[in-house]
UniProtKB/TrEMBL annotation:
<keyword id="KW-0378">Hydrolase</keyword>
<feature type="region of interest" description="Disordered">
    <location>
        <begin position="29"/>
        <end position="111"/>
    </location>
</feature>
<feature type="domain" description="Peptidase C51">
    <location>
        <begin position="310"/>
        <end position="439"/>
    </location>
</feature>
<dbReference type="InterPro" id="IPR007921">
    <property type="entry name" value="CHAP_dom"/>
</dbReference>
<keyword id="KW-0732">Signal</keyword>
<dbReference type="InterPro" id="IPR002901">
    <property type="entry name" value="MGlyc_endo_b_GlcNAc-like_dom"/>
</dbReference>
<feature type="compositionally biased region" description="Pro residues">
    <location>
        <begin position="85"/>
        <end position="95"/>
    </location>
</feature>
<dbReference type="InterPro" id="IPR051056">
    <property type="entry name" value="Glycosyl_Hydrolase_73"/>
</dbReference>
<dbReference type="GO" id="GO:0004040">
    <property type="term" value="F:amidase activity"/>
</dbReference>
<dbReference type="Pfam" id="PF05257">
    <property type="entry name" value="CHAP"/>
</dbReference>
<dbReference type="Pfam" id="PF01832">
    <property type="entry name" value="Glucosaminidase"/>
</dbReference>
<feature type="signal peptide">
    <location>
        <begin position="1"/>
        <end position="26"/>
    </location>
</feature>
<feature type="compositionally biased region" description="Low complexity">
    <location>
        <begin position="38"/>
        <end position="82"/>
    </location>
</feature>
<dbReference type="InterPro" id="IPR038765">
    <property type="entry name" value="Papain-like_cys_pep_sf"/>
</dbReference>
<protein>
    <recommendedName>
        <fullName>Peptidase C51 domain-containing protein</fullName>
    </recommendedName>
</protein>
<comment type="similarity">
    <text>Belongs to the glycosyl hydrolase 73 family.</text>
</comment>
<feature type="compositionally biased region" description="Low complexity">
    <location>
        <begin position="97"/>
        <end position="107"/>
    </location>
</feature>
Amino acid sequence: MKRKILSFQMIFALLSVNLIPVASYADELSQSGPSAIEDGSTTESTESSSTEETSTSTTDSSTSGSETSTTESSDTGTTDSSVAPQPPTVSPEPEQPVETAPVAPAAPEEEVTVDQVPVVTDNGLTVQPNQEISVVKNEPTENFIRRIGEKARAVGQKNDLYASVMIAQAILETGAGGSQLSQQPYHNLFGIKGEYKGESVVFSTQEDDGSGNLYTIDAAFKQYPGYKESFEDYAKLMKEGIDSNPEIYSGTWKKNAVTYQEATKSLTGVYATDTSYDQKLNAFIEEYNLTEYDKAQPSQTASGMIIADTHPDSDFEDYTGETFSGSEAYAEGNCTQYVYNRVVQLGGSVETMMGNGMDWGATGKANGYEVTNKPKAGTAVSFQPGVAGADGTYGHVAFVEHVYEDGSILISEMNAAGLGVVSFRVIDQNTANTLAYVTPK
């Protein structure tokens, strides 16, 4: 009997030993499910936290996904735990480590300082942090060049100076004509202080104390009647210098500067403290081909238009660019305002309400002016819409500078080559005889 009892005890012991692994494995299943879910949930939560710094919408999406994943996994864990565990029939293979691509640590965000941001100005000038300078063409600057180019050419030829350099300086100093000081009624293109024939205007300006520190003061700047006078006064400064040094700007003279680059270099540190002043001027000269204005004569367009303020065939004194009382009744820079100012400049007068260009003939008759179809120098000539390039809606008006022997006429006009730009054209005899000529009073 003892042997049998021992046998039964041994059998029971053996069975107990075999059951222990089964219970342990079941416990592992019921425990590993939720544990794995929690690990995954923790990972997603960490990612959501990281994403939260850059995008709120992304964080919401990640959080929603995390909640969904947690719910589904919890349900699965509960289902598994309700099923009675069964011993495995096949020994499970050991888990193999899964190779994952290493995750590079996020690069720290670089702090951007003001010195690292490119400086871009309204006139298309860009200065990179490494001091690389470039210019991109834009229409406002091109229009500004058309308005002042011929004035610069005339002054440059007369004073042995580079018109290209003067134009580039005017662009840089005024923001392509955008500064208040450069506009009517001040016309100061170069920021020159003082008085011009007793006229000045006070503006606040920043000054350097010599150590790089800026402070603001009120200063008087010269006020000119027009851009022509501004160029002439600037040329006088270049040629005569200052009291303590009459030749301080002699490096800009053509006889001393073989190229415009030498002229701009001589201005750097003298006219302006900006160490890259010459590079900026050169960039404008090159991008807009301003060396065309260094030539003695203006070029003629394919249509025969000469963009200039003066013409050798004109019977009258040069146009000064001065604006007169009453001209504000007409659109600035347009043909009507130009003819009004040109007539008043030469001592005549016309109404301030002559209408659009095409209306001057009819309005002139209604107001008692002599109006005829016979060309006459010194008159306002009215074009109907579409005639000789006139606007298709408003027509055009110009000033007759000269009548040639063959019956053709030389006219000066504004806004044919661009807003505010003065140009000359010759109108053939046949067309000239169809136009209306209004004699000023």
